[in-house]
Amino acid sequence: MGPYFIRNLIFLSTLVLITPNLVTKAEDSTNKDDNLLICQKCKCDRINKTLDCSNAKLTKLFDDADWKALNESSFDFENVTFAHNGISNLTQFPELPIKHLDLSNNYIKEIARRAFINLDFLETLDLSYNQIKSDVLIPEVFEGHFDATTYEPLKHLKVLKLGNNLLHYFKSNLFEHFNVLEELYLDENPFIAIDQQTEIALSDLPQIRILDMSAMQLTKLPEHLFHATRTLEVLNLSDNGLHHIPEALQYAINLKELTLDNNPINNLEYINVFPNLPKLEKLSLSYINDIEIIGEGAFSGLHNLKEFYAVRNMYLKEIHPKAFSRPGLEDKTRIEYPPLE
């Protein structure tokens, strides 16, 4: 019996002793979760740091005592979903380590002031598919802790989803507690028009990159809507009632992706129909039955366009060969085209 055999024997013996301990720890965690009310009603996934309370037939959020018990169990949950329940009143959350919170597909009509003030790590908040009205969505709902440089911010909130609610305007100071918001989804709310208060609110988003304003029943946009949102890169205006390319786009100078599908747009026969959008790479003009002709130079201001989509435009008869062309920047006699792929 050589030393190599003895070393292997010691290793195997150690492994046999350790393995039961690992199993015991896993069983202990499972047993702990079985004793927690929240884990009895929801799925507590410690490995993926997820608390899944979707489709749990809940009509309200849990009490502070239940959250405290979950916290004391050393469950470090970052992802929490209450989607597809019957919650109507959103009360204030206690101090929790949540980063991503999904409250979509409920019946939320009321939201407490400072509802999210204790969620210091919150990055994503989904309130879509509820019954939230404009008079409920007030700045105090999103109030955060005191900060010496910014007005009581939700310091880490980057994504806010408000689609499919009953919103038709914003208070002008609604987003005063959002200093790092990058994505805002407003799709399928009955705004009909962007009034002055709403325009001011949307201009108060210094870091916004993605804005979804689809299916909001809009027929026009205020001319200076994007004047203060110079960081905007992706804009969805599909499924509205826009008859013309909005003049407001002239201020969206850093826009990279624009979707205008399913609007009754009909004025694409003239040169420079689109404003100069030097960074635009992707444009979609699909499902538009009012377009018959795309004329010469219509897209001449889109110098960097790489992708263009015009699908299911039933009455589109002609796209002029020079629809995308423009005179050369240095040599005006030279015709230049964008780098379409």
UniProtKB/TrEMBL annotation:
Keywords annotated in UniProt: Leucine-rich repeat, Repeat, Signal
Domain of life: Eukaryota
SUPFAM superfamilies assigned: L domain-like (SSF52058)
InterPro entries given in the database record: Dev_Immune_Receptor (IPR050328), Leu-rich_rpt (IPR001611), Leu-rich_rpt_typical-subtyp (IPR003591), LRR_dom_sf (IPR032675)
Signal peptide: 1-26
Protein name: CSON014810 protein
Gene this protein is translated from: CSON014810
